[in-house]
Amino acid sequence: MSDDYVPRFTFEISEEQKARADRVLATYGLRKAVFSTILDDLLDLIEERGNIVVGILLGEVVKPREILPSMNEAERKSK
Fold this sequence. Notes:
Blueprint: H1 15-24, H2 30-49, H3 52-58, H4 64-67, H5 69-78
């Protein structure tokens, strides 16, 4: 790997998601900071509890904010 290599996480989103993200996460660097925190929480949870976490999220049994510590804390403190 060269010194210039920066890993990236890329996936498609809907037009609606892009418009919402552009509106609410417009500050430079905010998306990276927010999604890095959420990704770390998700990966920690999967490592601790296993792939059942993925199944629960994809099955839409609960909302991510109900199980991801950073999102749960943000929702709780913002009320």
